[in-house]
Hints:
By secondary structure, this protein is of the alpha+beta class. It has helices spanning 19-27, 39-43, 75-83, 103-113, 118-124, 144-148, 255-261, 270-280, 291-324, 334-365, 384-461, 474-497, 508-531, and strands at 54-59, 70-72, 93-99, 152-162, 173-175, 182-183, 186-187, 190-191, 194-208, 213-220, 226-231, 234-239. The longest helix is centred in the C-terminal third of the chain and has 78 residues, at 384-461.
Amino acid sequence: MGSPSLKTSYCEWLAPEGPYRELARSLSAADPRLQHRDFESEKREIVWPSGKPRALILHQQNDGGFTEPSTYTDAEALRQILQNRQTPTPRCRTVVILEGLSPDFIEVLGVYYNIHPTMFVEHERSHHSKVLPRLEPTSLLALPASGCTRDYVGLNYVELVRLPQLGEGQFNVHCTATYRHVGVTRTYGEFHDVGMARRKCTVWHRQHAEVDSWDCLILCDPPIESIRIFDGGIQEQVSMPQPSFPCGYLDFTPLEHQMERKSGPPRTSMAADLTFYLRSVAPLLDLRNPACVTMLAAKIAASHFLMHAGYLREIMSAVESKASNLAHLAGFHIAEAEAQWSDAQTLCRRMHEYIGYLEANMLQLRIPFAEPDTSRVVGWDDVSADFQYLALRFRDLRLRAEMISHSRAGLASIAGNRQGFREQQLALQAAERSIREARSARALTFVGLVFIPLAYTASLFSMADPYAPGKEGFWVYFAISVPLIIFVISAYYLLNLGYSLDGSTWSAENVWRRIASGAFEHLSKTSLDKKLP
């Protein structure tokens, strides 16, 4: 395997120097995604390849079952094994499962099976919901009709995982090996310890009808052994607890067959589960058609979706139940309502994303977008009813998430109105206090305007004979004080009339304008009173 690198040039990321890289270069005009790696992965400096892939090979035996898988971690060893069986032999049915991707394994499998490089590109790409769209050739999409006619099926699904303590409360979490996003859920300010990992599984097969043989290649994501946390430009790698999610999904094979074998899938990875089902339910499969392998992969993906739908339903039921039990909103703050609205928006966005995954899977599996008709289900291996039911369930969950979002918006409005009403009450109380204080200050000012002239006059005459109280000249004190009081009060009010409306400037023009407007209003009112009978 080639040494890991951060950035690669034209088509170098896909395969080492050789015929397959030249094929990718010649096809890059038809599919520009072949030119470069995922743009966001290079931007985050994610090394490529980021893990050690391994290949599992299973052969069908004469009794109809499959052998124990042979494991290969070296691409050259896998090349030698494949080259030893160049010519298909009768009833030679082989399944190759590749966990992870690397240029060496892509080159070996692509050359041997003559696979279009687009299949490896689409499996490598990741959806980045928090990245603004760019005019980059790394994220182009194919038309539905084109995708339905290809010789491979790329299944997107979501796997529930148990997050480590350091991963709880972090939104920017990705799988270290695949750089696929791992979502977290927050309700009522608390983060859940269950993460939702985006996963992919791609199934390609080629049939040799003349000798009743076929080959099947499955690309799947490895188990999530560690996650990468991006926090403010700082990357931190954290190991995942094992097993990542011990419960897992329910076995989808017939009950009577479960009672016969008395075992179940390991639920540790897609490769391990596919190996289990290929070896345990081979008698139930129509092994003449390699589509049975695609059916098993689709069943596992649908089981993960169903488990995820149940988890989301429990979350929404808890949120709706808590909201319906609120007796009053006295202690409810607008910040809390806004946080709940943000959580509801996250649920809505994810519902749209998961429905998009389901619809893309249904297009490739050629399942019509209709409601499930159980009367047409003929066996446990029917995937049409499974995905139609899942699409129906997730559309219902989307409606519930939108209702929660609308209710949280209304709750935020109610909380905002209550907070605004409380602020208005406080402002009214403050205004009333200001008015009382202004009236008190005005009364004190008036008292000062009266007593200042009196004090000035008393100091002027020193209140001695003959102007002392009780003396014959005491009237002079009042004769001087009263006009002085009238003059001071008049000057005070005239000064107030000179200020502008905002109180920032003073001018004599304002004084005369207001005196004139007041006289005009008085004359107008007097003339109007005379005209009235």
